[in-house]
Amino acid sequence: MSLSNKNILLGVTGGIAAYKSAEIVRGLVKKGAGVRVVMTESAMRFITPLTLAVLSKNQVNTGLWEGDQERIDHVSISSGSDLFLIAPATANTLGKIAHGLADNLLTNLFLTFKGPVVVCPSMNSNMYLHPAVQANLEILRQRGVHIIAPAVGELACGVEGVGRMPAPEAIVMEVETLLMKRAKLSGKKILITAGPTREFFDAVRFISNPSSGKMGYAIAEAAARRGADVVLVSGPSLLPKPAGVRLVNVVTAEEMNEAVMSNLKDVDAAIMAAAVSDYRPVGRYPEKLKKGEEKISNDLERTPDILENAGKRKNGFLLVGFAAETEGLLENAREKMLRKNCDMMVGNLVNSSRSGFESDENEVMVISKKKDTVDKLPLMSKRQAAERIMDKIIEEMGLD
Known about the structure:
By secondary structure, the chain is an alpha/beta fold. The chain has helices at 21-30, 49-56, 73-76, 91-98, 105-112, 125-129, 131-142, 168-183, 214-225, 253-263, 306-312, 329-339, 382-396; strands at residues 7-12, 34-39, 83-89, 117-121, 146-147, 151-154, 160-164, 189-194, 199-200, 206-207, 229-234, 245-249, 269-272, 279-281, 300-302, 318-325, 344-349, 361-362, 364-368, 373-376, 380-381.
């Protein structure tokens, strides 16, 4: 069975769709999973703990202060779980977990759980579409929580609209797919670059670009979630270190080149998402240059071509490059892929206000040299794009 040896922690909150949690438990158990259920006080008004205990063949936990008080339940209950599924997830619970509030057992478990989390929003359509709820969902997405979008249909209040929890079998299938994806890169080492580089003109001024590192960091998170051993070489970025990733901080293109070359050994894939400065000043002033002459000049020289250097050292690993263009995207990206000895190229236009540098969204195309294909992805969040890009990389590595 596909979920054999997998343990699922199921959180049930107080919405009318809580009755569907019985079928979710049944479906997970049928697939071979071990299921542990935790319920909020409101959830028990819709379905009894006894029902879920019988179906899961495990004790159902409902409060912070129950059971063996020698243990801290909000840590011990989730121990050994491979995934935390919250279905249904009410607007109230979404708000709590998005903002770190922990006033019941379920929300405490959310803050202590270190594995993948899946939430299934279920509520009245007006509630679901309210800007506050949508903002909370976006916060959770940005933190790597997987959201299963609600379906459109007849709601408990009698109206038609979005907010209906998907069918239990669809939720079970989504959990199964996520856990299968998570194991795809187990035992694989992946090197990723992200962010800009800075080439200093004097002690405080430098040549750089607006890259935030969001795309590369999202790819690093996606690879780590799928079980890879990830080394992230990052230029200056304000983003927090992704969970489960070894971070190597650099500043200049020279430093990034050295870090990449020293970490290429034994990698299975190298994904070069950094926006590296192509030129640097020939002469650097050791101190801050004071305002004086009307004009000053300084020659520029090429920085190391990190992608090209990686292509020359390729010895079986998959090499993925990025092409940020302002025009002729497909032609320029394909030419760069061939010239730099890449296996794949991810191209995007950076002259759009909604995608590219600093934006939370991106619209990319993924080019495969071996398959001679071009996959154009629509505008989506960089986290979503990272997942789609990783899907393509896994296919290219023959691991799908």
